[in-house]
Amino acid sequence: MSDDENILLSEDQGAVRVLTLNRPKARNCLSMDLMTAVRGALADAAESDSVRAVVLTGAGPAFSSGHDLKELTAHRNDPDKGRAFYEDTMRTCAEMMLAIVRLPKPVIAAVNGIATAAGCQLVATCDLAVAATDARFATPGVNIGLFCSTPMVALSRNVSRKAAMEMLLLGEMVGAEDAMRLGLLNRVVAADRVVNEAVAFGRTIASKPGRTLKIGKEAFYRQAEMPLDEAYRYTASVMVENMLDAEAEEGIGAFLDKREPNWPR
After folding, report:
1. Which of 37, 56, 249, 254 has its CA 20 to 30 A from that of 188?
2. pLDDT at residue 265 greater than cutoff 80
3. By its UniProt entry, which Pfam families does this protein fall under (predicted)?
4. Looking at residue 179, which CATH number applies to its domain?
């Protein structure tokens, strides 16, 4: 199979959809076709009533090495020296990252190997992340004269400013345990358990009421960009609307009645 065939694999494991970046020979670098495929798969997951969570992983020894530099370099011979293609690439990448954030279902990265540049950005963008003990992370663009400016958006929203700047300015690899300590990861597990652990994460989340998860995920990302007083006003209004939802009525009633909730569908 060539890297151009079936560049994104999809498999449902119960209520969890596992999406696998499938360009192993190219270290799952993010070509335009692959980014477009991921966006389409996320849209499909959003519309599926049976999918309650998404796991994103990579085939082969890498999660993702970032943008497809060979594809980008090939467009230097365009009449505009590649400007239009580069703009399209960065726009498509941003749209893919935003699709993850805006998906009304959690997305969990299962990091099976290196995640560098936009690949590291992809991990940081996912709601949760599980990594293999030998996974490594970097934003190494500074080493090749291309600062990781778009990866820094997600990275700086996951780790401290000092940690983000260290990764961005030094461009060095960070091991899985250090990445978890910095806040980039939730769990580090043996390599042969990465996808299963992420799926287990997803199944636990899938057991929760769906509309409540949707409300909570959207509110989390919106309030994070607000000043403190505005965030409290916004989340208070979200809580009121959530309280009036049938899921909250059933969940609170079940808690008070000391019974298992029967979530409305």
Report:
1. 37
2. no
3. ECH_1
4. 3.90.226.10
CA diameter of the chain: 70
Burial of residue 245, with CB atoms counted within 10 A of its CB: 0-12 exposed, 13-18 middle, 19 or more buried? middle
Q: How far is CA 71 from CA 3, 25, 122, 146, 184, in A?
A: 13, 14, 19, 15, 28
SS3 content of the chain, % helix, strand, coil (to 5): 55, 15, 30
The total of structural domains in the chain comes to 2
Identify the domain containing residue 53 by its residue range. 8-206
CB count within 10 Å of CB 10 equals 15
Token code pair at residue 19: 């999406």
Which of the listed residues 168, 186, 206 is the one where a domain comes to its end?
A: 206
- Backbone φ and ψ of 260, nearest 5°: -75, 140
Report the C-alpha gap between 199 and 53 in whole angstroms.
Answer: 9
d(CA 16, CA 106): 10
Identify the band that residue 120 occupies on the pLDDT scale cut at 50, 70 and 90: very high
Which helix (H) or strand (E) element contains residue 136?
strand 136-138
Whether pLDDT at 190 is above 60 = yes
DSSP string, 196-213: HHHHHHHHHHHTS-HHHH
Q: Contacts by 192-195 with C-beta closer than 8 Å and gap 24+?
A: 194/57, 194/110, 194/111, 194/112, 194/130, 194/131, 194/132, 194/135, 195/18, 195/55, 195/57, 195/110, 195/112
Q: Residue 91: CB partners within 8 Å, gap ≥ 6? A: none
Q: What is the pTM of this model?
A: 0.94
Dist CA 113 CA 131 (whole Å)? 8
Residue 119 DSSP label: H
Does 225 map to a domain? yes
